[in-house]
């Protein structure tokens, strides 16, 4: 195992949607023992606390159709800088916060990848594509727009200019099962690689992930993983405001994370959409920490027998 300097970046983003509660996410991960787990696996840890959004300067004619766009733009600027800096000295783990945080984290990692002259790839573990723009979103929720932003779609004029765009062909989405018609049409025209739950039912989760990881390694790329709680089935992970039945099982999710560890190309991790207000005695936060452990090298044989 390669030991890592894990940098925890608290990103209590709660501006990307209407239902509040994700602001408590970073501290829920800490309460669930993420720091202790990292140390037990032999990694070092640098917890940088919870960040705050920048105060952006927005043109007066900027689009204001989306919810709380000023706060989200401020978060994008803050987290882009935080990601770019943290990736230079360790392995950043962004403790969210809703998925709008990835507007900044992926943008910052794209800048870092450009600076070290390597292609950035993105693995999106989510029930949704999050490929909207401020102009196409009918809900006005910016947590549904990160992939639209980082791939350079139109409509983000008020956001910080992207230092580097992530090519659509470098993005794989796994776990899709709730995609509106506008996103489905845009996705069909894009070069991204979607893997919905029907395909997982038909061929399993390992084969499409292995193919994508081979693509990353063949390009000598680095991989940003964005793990949304709603990638998981709500029966095992209820603490999310966007529950969609039929998500990844406990073993499917751990297999994904174990394969990512084995691939050795993951450079950053988002943990997003945890809403502790909706959790059941911390079970979702604990599961997300355990999945992070699998990414950091914990194996199936390492898991103790539970007390029932």
Structure overview:
By secondary structure, this protein is α/β, with parallel strands linked by helices. It has one domain: Ureohydrolase domain (Arginase, Chain A, 3-Layer(aba) Sandwich). Helix content is 35%, strand content 16%. The protein is built from 10 helices and 8 strands. Strands 2-1-3-8-7-4-5-6 form an 8-stranded parallel sheet, sandwiched between helices. Helix 3 runs parallel beside helix 4 and helix 9 packs parallel to helix 10. It is globular, with a radius of gyration of 18 Å. The chain starts with a strand and ends in a 13-residue tail after the last helix. The mean pLDDT is 93.
Which features characterize this protein?
single chain, 308 residues, alpha/beta, Arginase, Chain A, 8-stranded parallel β-sheet, 8 strands, globular
Question: What is the compact description of this entry?
Answer:
The protein is an alpha/beta fold. It contains ten helices and eight strands. Helix 3 packs parallel to helix 4 and helix 8 runs parallel beside helix 9.
CATH superfamily: Ureohydrolase domain
Return residue spans where pLDDT drops below 50 for at least 5 consecutive residues.
none
**Number of helical segments?**
10
Largest sheet: 8 strands, parallel
The overall average pLDDT, rounded, is 93
Find the structural class using helix and strand composition.
alpha/beta
Q: How much helical structure, as a percent, in the residues? A: 25-40%
CATH topology: Arginase, Chain A
Distance between the termini: 32 Å
Give the CATH architecture: 3-Layer(aba) Sandwich
For the largest sheet, list the strands in their spatial order: 2-1-3-8-7-4-5-6
**Strand portion, in percent?**
15-25%
| Cα gyration radius (Å) | 18 Å
């Amino acid at each position: 195992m390669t030991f890592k300097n894990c940098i925890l970046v608290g990103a209590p983003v709660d501006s990307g949607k209407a239902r509040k509660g994700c602001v408590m996410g970073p501290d829920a991960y800490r309460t669930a023992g993420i720091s202790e787990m990292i140390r037990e696996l032999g990694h070092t840890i640098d917890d940088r606390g919870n960040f705050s959004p920048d105060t952006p300067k927005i043109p007066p004619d900027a689009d204001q159709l989306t919810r709380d766009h000023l706060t989200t733009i401020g978060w994008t600027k803050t987290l882009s800088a935080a990601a770019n800096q943290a990736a230079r000295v360790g392995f950043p783990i962004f403790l969210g916060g809703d998925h709008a945080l990835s507007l900044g984290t992926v943008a910052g990692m794209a800048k870092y990848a450009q600076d070290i002259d390597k292609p950035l790839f993105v693995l999106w573990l989510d029930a949704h594509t999050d490929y909207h723009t401020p102009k196409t979103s009918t809900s006005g929720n910016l947590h549904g727009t990160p992939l639209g932003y980082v791939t350079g779609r139109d409509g983000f004029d008020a956001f910080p200019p992207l230092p580097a765009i992530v090519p659509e062909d470098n993005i794989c989405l796994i776990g899709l099962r709730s995609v509106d018609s506008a996103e489905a049409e845009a996705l069909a025209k894009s070069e991204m690689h979607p893997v919905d739950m029907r395909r997982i039912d038909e061929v399993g989760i390992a084969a499409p992930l292995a193919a994508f990881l081979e693509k990353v390694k063949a390009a000598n790329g680095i991989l940003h993983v964005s793990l949304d709680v709603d990638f998981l089935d709500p029966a095992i992970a209820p603490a999310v405001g966007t529950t969609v039945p039929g998500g990844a099982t406990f073993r499917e999710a751990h297999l994904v994370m174990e394969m990512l560890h084995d691939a050795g190309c993951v450079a950053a991790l988002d943990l997003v959409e945890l809403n502790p207000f909706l959790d059941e005695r911390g079970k979702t936060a604990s599961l997300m920490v355990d999945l992070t452990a699998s990414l950091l090298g914990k194996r199936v044989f390492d898991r103790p027998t539970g007390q029932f």
